Automatic annotation (TrEMBL):
Protein name: RING-CH-type domain-containing protein
Organism domain of life: Eukaryota
Keywords recorded for this protein, A-Z: Metal-binding, Zinc, Zinc-finger
One GO molecular-function entry: zinc ion binding
Domain RING-CH-type: 40-75
Transmembrane segment boundaries: none
Origin species: Pelagomonas calceolata
């Protein structure tokens, strides 16, 4: 064991290598049914020539597109990032190339689930040997945290994100980088049920991005969605709805209808409409919103994508709630009409009784009056 650790460089590197292999095995197993008869679009083989690993996908590609080995995806990302670093290609190019550690180059959507988790470990094992002060190490930790979160390893994601935030504060990272990590940390808190802590951070992160970039910015809009989602989780429906009504039109204009942040905002907004005090109009708006979001999500992300699945599930809930509310309103209308008819009937009875009483009184009066002349 000590020799293996020594060959790996150190305990941290050995741990990263081990977790990577485990994550790849899990990802390959999860994709096994989907990849039958396919080959890697990078190396064109079904099994990787060296690792003998199988294929994965879990992006938004459909048909025969997008199948690959995690090892091939990682090697591609590693080469692209190295070129940007060695040739000083600038922040924009470097940022785009770092995106290959988490996103598919074909459909241009992020990987999700256990494939994102495997790529997170691939990224971390590649750069774990960098010094703490090196920005590449921090970026790799961020990719790892996001991958772990996508794979639903929430405790591990929290540990990574807390360590990253501590490191960034220790070495004086930029405000933008700190806001990114704080936002991710709040997502981990929410996943683990630490709602109030998440809300406080999300509020500060949204305020921070708003001051730095204004409201017409992707980071600001993502932070607004996360903040509103935290409000929703605490059942502060009115506050959440207000914020989404303010920011969703901006997201649709700035990011586009097919952007995943826009779709997420609209789905969350519709979910917020499904609360105890919802009117029939609220429920119908939720159904309309989700029907439109589902159409777009199917086109952009595909039917199997987690975001599309979530929208489908929310739509079914909204339809059921709307149907139930419609039936309740109809029953209430029938009952109200019946009560109104009953009141009319009672009024008619009372009027008849009054007329009868008047007639009886008149008869008694006639009977009591003195007889007239014969």
């Amino acid at each position: 064991m000590c020799k293996k650790i020594h060959r790996g460089g150190n305990a941290e590197q050995y741990h990263a290598d081990k977790k990577y292999k485990e994550a790849v095995a899990v990802a390959v197993e999860a994709c096994a049914e989907d990849v039958k008869g396919q080959t890697c679009y990078i190396c064109t083989q079904a099994l990787h020539w060296k690792t003998k690993e199988g294929l994965v996908r879990m992006c938004a590609c459909r048909g025969t597109a997008g199948f690959a080995h995690v090892t091939c995806l990682a090697e591609q990302a590693k080469i692209l990032v190295a070129e940007a670093e060695e040739n000083n290609l600038g922040y924009k190019v470097s940022f785009e190339r770092w995106g290959r550690w988490s996103g598919c180059s074909l459909c241009e959507q992020n990987y999700h689930g256990v494939v994102a988790g495997a790529l997170g470990w691939a990224c971390w094992k590649t750069y774990a040997g960098r010094p703490d002060r090196n920005w590449v190490r921090g970026t790799a930790m961020n990719v790892l945290g996001s991958g772990l979160s996508s794979a639903r390893h929430d405790e591990d994601a929290l540990t990574v994100r807390e360590a990253l935030l501590s490191m960034m504060r220790r070495f004086g990272a930029s405000e933008e980088d700190v806001l990114v990590v704080q936002g991710n940390l709040a997502c981990s808190y929410n996943r683990l049920g630490r709602r109030e802590e998440a809300l406080r951070i999300e509020r500060d992160v949204y305020s921070g991005w708003l001051k730095l970039n204004g409201e017409e910015n992707g980071m600001t809009l993502a932070a607004a969605n996360n903040y509103a989602d935290s409000l929703l989780r605490l059942q502060r429906f009115a506050d959440a709805l207000w914020l989404w009504r303010k920011t969703i039109p901006v997201a649709r204009r700035v990011l586009g209808e097919g952007n995943e942040t826009t779709l997420t905002m609209r789905c969350n907004y519709a979910q917020a409409l499904l609360n105890q005090s919802s009117t029939l109009a609220d429920l119908r708006e939720a159904v309309t919103t989700l029907e439109d979001a589902r159409r777009i999500a199917r086109r952009v992300l595909g039917g199997a994508h987690p975001r599309t699945v979530e929208i489908e599930r929310s739509l079914q809930t909204a339809v059921d709630a709307s149907t139930l509310k419609t039936q309740m309103v109809a029953r209430e209308a029938v009952m109200a009409a019946a009560i109104a008819d009953m009141r009319v009937y009672k009024a008619e009875i009372a009027a008849n009784e009054a007329q009868i009483a008047a007639n009886e009184a008149a008869i008694r009066a006639l009977e009591m009056s003195p007889p007239g002349d014969a």
